[in-house]
Each structure stands twice: as C-alpha cells, then as structure tokens.
Amino acid sequence: MLNYQGLQQVKIIASDNLWEPISASMLVDSELLRVIDVIGAHYPGTRTVKDARLTEKKLWSSEDFSTLNSDVGAGCWGRILNQNYINGYMTATIAWNLVASYYEQLPYGRCGLMTAQEPWSGHYVVEAPIWISAHTTQFTQPGWYYLKTVGHLEKGGSYVALTDGLGNLTIIVETMSHKHSMCIRPLLPYFNVSRQFATFSLKGSFSEIPELQVWYTKLGKPSERFLFKQLDSLWLLDSGGSFTLELQEDELFTLTTLTTGSKGSYLLPPKSQPFPCVYKDDFNVDYPFFSEAPNFADQTGVFEYFMNIEDPGEHRFTLRQVLNQRPITWAADAFNTISIIGDYKWSNLTIKCDVYLETPEKGGVFIAGRVNKGGILIRSARGVFFWIFANGTYRVTGDLAGWIIYTSGHADVTAKKWYTLTLTINGGFSSGTLNGKPLWKNVSVNFPKNGWAAIGTHSFEFAQFDNFRVEAIH
Fold first, then answer.
1. String of b and e for 431-455 (b: at least 16 CB within 10 Å)?
2. 87: which DSSP letter?
3. Predicted structure pTM score
4. Angle between the 71-88 and 128-137 helix axes, to the nearest 10 degrees?
5. Burial class (CB in 10 A: 0-12, 13-18, 19+), 28
6. Which of 71, 99, 154, 469 could form a disulfide with 280 if both were Cys (CB 3.0 to 4.6 A apart)?
C-alpha cells in the first residue's frame, strides 16, 4: 500500500515488541518477509534470537535505555551501545527518550539523554548520556559497517570497530561495571570488570594508519570523573600498528582516524527555580505558536487554545478540552480528561478557574489540587477534586476516578454558562466556592499531602477553562 501511494522510500520496522512472534512469522510467510525491512525489538537486553538472525534482515533495538540519566544511566547507555551489536547483532539502538522535558515526578522522570524540565526558568542539564552518545555518534555515520572483530574483553567490558569502507576506522571500548550500568530493564545478570591491559593490532589496510585520535570518559567519583575528554593521539607507525590500553572499570575510549570530534561548549544555563508560587493564565493568545498552553501537561484528553467567535467578551480566548471520544490507548488513559500543572511539592494552595460546560445534563468539569500521579498511572491518581455537573450537582472526591466521595450536593449549575470555581486546600481541610459564594467548607482531606494542580472533565467531552490562577503557600 505504501508503494502504491508513491511512498517507496518508506520502510517498515516491525514489530516494536519482542523478537517473537514476528521473526518466526516472517520465516513462514514470504510476503511478510518481503515487506519488512528491519526487525525492531524493545529493551532486548543486548540479545536477539535465532529466528531473527535467520531472516537476514537488519536488527534494531528500536526502543531502549529509559533509565535515569545519572552516571548509572550513562553506564547503561555506554554498555548497550556496544553490546547490542556484539551480543545481538543490532546495528541501531534508539534511546527513549531524547530530552526529559516533562514534570520529574511523572513516571520515568529524567529518563532522557539530557534534562530540560523547567521551561519557567530555562534551566537545563547536559547529562552524561549525551557525552556517552558522542563516543559513537561523532565518529560513525549511518552507512558505516561494523567489523567482524568485535567482542568482549578478558576481564570484563567490550569493544567494537566500525569503518566507512573508505579507510576510516573507529574503535569504541567500554568497561562499564555491573553496578554502574544497570538499565531499567531487563534484569542484568551479574558480571565482573577489573583493571586490565588490552592490546589491539591493526591489520590489512588498517596497518597503514599513522595516528588515532583518542576520546575518553570516566564515570564515577567527581574527583576522577571525565566526560568526553580528548587525550593525546596515538602514533602507530613505530609500533607496527598495535597499541595497548590500560583499562579501569567504568571507562569509555574512542580511538578514531576522524579528526572532526569536538566537545561543544555552551553558556551556563539559567539557575534552577521552583515553579512560581503564584501563576495565572488568561489564554488570551490571538495567534498561538503552539496549540497547547505553556506548563499544562495533558495526561488524558487534549487541551488547546480556543477562540469563541460568538463571545466578544472576556471569554473570547479560552482553553478547551477537544477530545470527545476515548482514543485507542497504548497504556491506560483515565476515563476522565485531565491536565496537570505546577510544583509536585505544593501542599497548601488556592486554585481558581472559570469553567464552561458544553454538554447539557451529562457534562462535568473539575479543578483539583494535590494530584499525586500521572502518565501510565493516571487512572489511580489521588488528590482533592472539586467537580460541578450540568445536572445541577457538585461533588468533592479524593481521586480522579470518583470512587472516594468526600461530599456532594446541589449547585446552581447548568451547561452553556460560565462559572468561577475556587478550591482552597490548607493542611487537613479544604473548601470550595462557586461564583465567590461558599459551596462546601472544612472538608477533611488527609491524603495525599502534596501534588500538582489540575483541570479536567468528567468524560471525553467539550468544555472550556479560562482565567486559571493558582496560589501556593510555601
């Protein structure tokens, strides 16, 4: 079908799961074998299976890493970049994710190659996995080939060698220890790494190479830690093309004919700062550059800038939840929609927001505080949720799903009208107002103690939000 539509250049990678059953299916189905270009497995733990190799297709680790970007995450990345090929013949490894730009307390916080999770301050951190990547990516290109001489070192660690077929050579050596290279999954069987000397001999056309550039990383104690440092180059003419490296644990060496390597520099990023204690957004953006409002993180549903053509007044520009049916989900979306914002440490706060129900009788919206979960865990999120419904009722619940009801009652609410909700949470008590008048007060809330602020809807329904304001007391 892709070819028929003129997309011959688009190739198919399958099945972004395990090696099986896709590999076995390809071996018994010649048409399937023909249309798949690459077998991609997720988190293969550097191993493949016999069926996958028998297909003679390219093998990729099409999702990997997903590990906290500390030095342990860097060790994980360094080890699998080499060993995915050595143990599993995989010629590509794709890291999930590139940049950790989402609230850190969401699932898989800081599991990116670098961190940029404070758009309000501009603070970012170029973490160690970025420089681990450079050991491979600055000295190879797609289209280079691995040599057959790759493998494990006698006392732990591994080496790979690649060439462009035009005389260039890159050798990457890693000695990541078990303790400092555990990825988030799968379980890593124990192995030992100790100090050793490794001798490499360049043969054939490579014996003519006069000089190799040397790049070095050492993970671990700050006093002896180096990230992607250029060392003196190796001269090989006198040694008959062989050289010996002294290797300690948790090191990475790149030896290469390429002279283009460079460790980029950058200005000191702005200082890290907490999310502002007082935050407001009226969503008055005439021609938005993005469809989403800044700092809101949709966990289920989609919240977009919206312009009410009919409303010339103060609600001309709003934020609207625009999904009206539950999508086919990958993980576990909630049955409600929700977008979170703020500082996970917030405990005592007041959230104020204008809300507009678009669905008569059945519609419902909420504002919330102390929301303690998101991402794949959003269905079990706890917090303090203040709901109003188009059927003229309100509810206060301790969870997004609405199982834990703190209080409920009648409210003068209908669809197609703007209302202002205020939710105040202080210590073990909370209260709420509707259009400035108390609707419920001193409701006991004991769990959770902190979390994000949030807005959302009862179901996948259209609803609008405006003049959002939160004030947290630190």
1. bbbbeeeebbeebebeebebbbbbb
2. H
3. 0.95
4. 30
5. exposed
6. 469
